[in-house]
Prior knowledge:
- This protein is mostly beta strands.
- It is built from no helices and 4 strands.
- Helix content is about 0%, strand content about 15%.
- It holds the Pfam family Stig1.
Amino acid sequence: MTCDKFRRVCRARGRAGPHCCRKQCVNVMTDNQNCGQCGKKCWFSQACCGGSCVNVMHDPKNCGGCNKRCKKGFLPVRDV
């Protein structure tokens, strides 16, 4: 059974996510190859956080990882 024919397959326990992209179950909120929508790829230095590609080395709301705010006084790495 593939999700392109049986959409409910992706909602089963143990599946990667509730969305079907190219016959695979994914979570478009966290999947770097399908970020926010099927086929939208994040760049190498980015992570898919909440359906958006962000650079976790430069984003104070996603400091080193998704949904990790930088501690007070700590700023993410900046290019010089």
